[in-house]
């Protein structure tokens, strides 16, 4: 009798799951297991909530669709897997590869250990379109700029049909933890509104994708920057937890493009946003220090102020800049923030408050439902100006102008900063600047701006000028 383990990680789905498919195709008995590995798990408070519900959904789906029981264990993976191998006569272990530096090191150690004892360890690409080591520039090194990287990726893409599991292996009775005992939900009453916005699990992911294609793909390129429109896919948390594969998304978009009425420009632009996710993992693979260290070493000399009282004001959405505060409050309430607003709040923190991008990245890791270590680190370095293919440091978002351009009627601000809802469309973006709104503005509890943007911008440019004069050896 052939018996195997499927170690599920960031691939919490049945469909288009190569490790699960191959295990089911080649063995009579399967043990699907999820291990809560605290040492190699970048699980913030918000994501812990999602993980609980995603695992619950997967447990039910595996039972109903395949007759398999999902096993939960908490601890060190090598120890847990070794125990199962020794006691249950396991012939093989299957998993889909991870790409964070700690995950790569862990998996190499585990694979080598089991191969020494004759246990087959088989790994697959279940999370990316192209694996990081397969894409190189003409000189044979890795790309540092997105556009040529993505053009090369598109040339290398080899779509395959989704594999459907037809062989139903038997389940194995194995002792398991319970999800309730893991106590993953945040202890603060923080995630109370999350169920109003999200449905974790493979079914919720597919619903999101279908809804996006039906309602928001047309016009996506022009509307994606308008936070009040909510015209983006909201697939990022589902992709982070592997509830849907990137190939499933690509296939669905390519199928949508066959419709003669499809907005082809928007469809291709959406795929390029999927490409940014790929590029982030690509950078993390080639620059494993990216979450901790500036890619551009001259930024090691940047004079961060790191005023923790200002950091707290930013975290709580009390900076006095309506568009910034709307974004930070959306994040707290929903575990999500519109991408345009993410850039605005990140620029405000790093180039307005002069707070180290790593402190902002830490906050996002804890509060965002979709915070990949790769995408989070790459994006913060991009905004701060210290990363690969980064926005120039002198590109400093003016929060008022950004608000006027992308939330012209103040709809997004009114939703998340309701104390300003009585202000008119012209004055809601910078209420302190107009005498016409002074009385209404001062009747609210909304704070005065914590910085003067123009003064902060001038200071940021002077810092940048000094950085350029530093000779790095």
Radius of gyration: 24 Å
Mean pLDDT metric: 93
Please provide the count of β strands: 6
Helix and strand element order: EHEHEHEHEHEHHHHHHHHHHHHHHHH
Number of helices: 21
What would you say this structure looks like, in words?
The chain is an alpha/beta fold. Helices cover 48% and strands 6% of the residues. It contains 21 helices and 6 strands. The chain has helices at residues 18-26, 45-66, 77-88, 101-116, 146-156, 179-182, 194-197, 202-215, 220-223, 236-240, 246-256, 264-286, 308-316, 322-334, 339-351, 357-367, 373-384, 399-406, 411-416, 438-443, 453-468; strands at residues 3-8, 29-36, 71-74, 92-96, 120-124, 170-171. Strands 1, 2, 3, 4, 5 and 6 form a 6-stranded parallel sheet that branches. Strand 2 (29-36), helix 2 (45-66) and strand 3 form a beta-alpha-beta unit. It is globular. The termini are far apart. The relative contact order is 0.11.
